[in-house]
Amino acid sequence: MKRQIGFKYRLDPTPEQAARLRVLAGHSRFVWNKALAECQATRERGESVPRYNTMAGWLTAWKRQPDLAFLTEAYTDNLQQKLRDLDTAWQRYFAPELDAEPPSFKKKGKSRDSIRFVNFPKYCALGHREVKLPAGLGWVGFRQSRQSRKRRPFLPTAERGQVEFALNREMPPTVGKIKNCTVGLDGGDWSISFLIEYEVKVPTHPAVTAIGLDMGVAHFVTDSDGKHYAGRNSFRHIERRLAKAQRRLKHKAKFSQNWKTQKARIARLHHRAACARCDTLHQLSTRLSKSHAMIAIEDLKVANMTASAKGTQEVPGKRVKQKAGLNKAILDQGWFEFRRQLAYKQAWRGGLLEVVPPRHTSQTCPECQHVDAGNRVTQARFHCQSCGYSTNADVVGARNVLARAHAHLSGRDAPVAPVK
User: Which superkingdom (predicted)?
Assistant: First the structure.
């Protein structure tokens, strides 16, 4: 079977190359916004949103307009990829099972700038710690940060577009084909991601155990065996420094050089917190994926859980400040990113990730199946009002999640009993 993997490295462009990358990113951002405006105008007329083939025709017509002549200096393949991404975003929005948000406009400095170079073997080339990119960029250096003492895990082969890499030190080197690469701007630094496709045998997970996970704030994850795993809470660690940096930004002239420098410092703080959070999630998801053939988690709707409690002027909300603090803590955990990592790591190892509905998982007794809001005595303690079973509430939730996953796999799904 074919499998795809990505390798991301820090890119080290020269000042001239960095300026060219910003221009290319601006071209793609402009095309995205202009095509999105056309799509929204089409919807307002009561017509269907155009697909990619129609949008590609728009791009050809735009290049012929005198006021849009700058698009002739853009990298056409990247503009076409942006239109493909826009088409995909609309299709995700129209798919009811995905519950995705509609595509939105991109703004310079707030949206992530990226340029994708497709058909890598034809237009690009890989060297030792450098990559050749089209669109007037030439050879650009990147940092080979994934190295071991015995071998480098990312080396070009004799055939153009192929690369030899190692997933870890225990596995032998693997040869794959680079499909494309994406250059993006993260926290003021450019990075490059290589998408590699390679052949692999159908995997069989070495473990035979199953586990249920309950997501939380006090404990990031609690499993059905009773173990608690702490979260990183990376945003909380930079909150004071971030507030101080934002206060300094307020007193600087907007769009001045000092203002831009301070904005870059704030972006680096956010980027550092995101990287720390992602690193913690990777370590935990890898540990759980290696140890269990099946992992069951809740299908949490984070957007609904973190909705504002302000209310309206006529009907103001209650305990708004407490709810805002809870929302901040929930968003600092990275629940969906953790789920995404578990999904592909289980698929790589031949395991299974089961997603179950979260309703009443912490109010249902795992011993007698009695459902009662009074069973959750406190945030941390569970005591069944029917049979007297008592334990940690998060452990109860994890056990119920695992039980629902087993019921779903065996075809014994039953409607969740209403809470009393």
Answer: Bacteria
Cα(208)–Cα(247) distance, rounded to whole angstroms? 53
Alpha carbon 16 to its chain's center: 31
Give the burial string for 183-210 (b: 16+ CB within 10 Å, else e).
bbbbbeebbbbbbbebeeeeeebeeeeb
Q: Which stretches within 105-233 are classed as H helix?
A: 120-123
Q: Provide the β-strand partners of residue 331.
A: none
The CA distance from 326 to 307, in Å, is 10
H/E run at residue 181: strand 174-186
394 catalytic per annotation: yes
* Residues facing 131 on adjacent strands: 126, 140
pTM to 2 decimal places: 0.86
Nearest-CA neighbor of 58 among 85, 37, 88? Answer: 37
Q: Is 214 a catalytic residue?
A: yes
Which of the following is catalytic: 87, 186, 298, 332? 298
> Does residue 164 have an active-site annotation?
no
CA–CA dist 329, 232 (Å, integer): 11
Query: pLDDT 10s per residue in the chain (420 long)?
Result: 888 988 899 999 999 999 999 999 999 999 999 999 999 999 999 999 999 999 999 999 999 999 999 999 999 999 999 999 999 999 999 998 888 899 999 998 888 899 999 999 999 999 888 999 999 999 999 988 765 554 556 778 878 888 888 776 666 788 999 999 999 998 889 999 999 999 988 888 999 999 999 999 999 999 999 999 998 899 999 999 999 999 999 999 998 999 999 999 999 999 999 999 999 999 999 999 999 999 999 999 888 888 888 887 777 888 888 988 999 999 999 999 999 999 999 998 999 999 999 999 989 999 999 999 889 988 889 999 989 899 999 999 999 999 999 999 887 665 555 555
Which of 87, 186, 354, 394 is flagged as catalytic? Answer: 394
* Nearest-angstrom CA–CA distance, 234 and 220: 13
Strands (E) located in 187-249: 189-199, 210-215, 221-223, 228-229
How far apart are alpha carbons 282 and 331 in whole angstroms?
17
Q: Render 380-412 in DSSP notation, one character per residue.
A: SEEE-TTT--EEEHHHHHHHHHHHHHHHHHTT-
Catalytic choice (214, 223, 332, 354)? 214
- Would you list the domain boundaries of the chain? 2-15+115-199, 18-106, 210-356
